Predict the 3D structure of the following.
Amino acid sequence: MGTYEDLVAEGAAAPVEGWDFSWLEGRATEQRPSWGYQRTIADRLPRVAAALDVQTGGGEVLAGVPAYPPVMVATEGWPPNAARAARLLRPRGVAVVAVADAPAFPFADARFDLVTSRHPVRPWWAEIARVLRPGGRYLAQHVGPASMLDLIEWMRGPLPAVDRHDRDPEVEAAQARAAGLEVLDVRCERLRVEFFDIAAVVHLLRKVIWWVPDFDVERDDRQLRGLHDRIRTDGSFVAWSSRVLIEARRPG
């Protein structure tokens, strides 16, 4: 294991565009949900005529799907990710559309049979319901409640109770119903995440910026050094992610 300074510098220099986490190989591990999200959408997408992937990131998850429907569209709001997704997906016939963060899709009503999304920041339920055709489905993997709270509270200190219970799957299901959708399935799993060096922590905090807003390696040096020492003593730092599979249908 390198020195603290070397590892922090390594994590601070690693590229953070897109949702490719291969840089973490050998540095961190995360247990996967039992339903296999990419495998699940790979089974569904070829069965429909038109599909929309929301907040596709750099397009890595969608790119791993072998076959698409005749009409396949992906949206992304962060320009570096949108550009990466376009390079990855357009050669395969996917239309990649840059969208603003405002909750509105630039698509006609009842345009898609299937809307998918992996880890959306916030699902736009009214818009999802609007662009789905009658009988169309929303199939997504959301981040669940208290995900990575062990790491977040190590860096930020104890969070208010309201923050600890954010992303409650029952609340999201109620929001989907309020938008006119019929909720067919909700599953939640807690998954083990293990960090083997502080470079992995720095890299992820730079990549997943909403965990520790305004994260800075110099300002947060005390917490990072304490975590580095913990990893050296225990061999790793264990946290727990939370994932939710939700499926909903537009009636009709």
User: Anything to note?
Assistant: Strands lie at 28-30, 50-54, 71-76, 95-98, 112-118, 132-143, 182-195, 237-249. The chain has a mean pLDDT of 95. Residues 221-234 form the longest helix (14 residues). The radius of gyration is 19 Å.
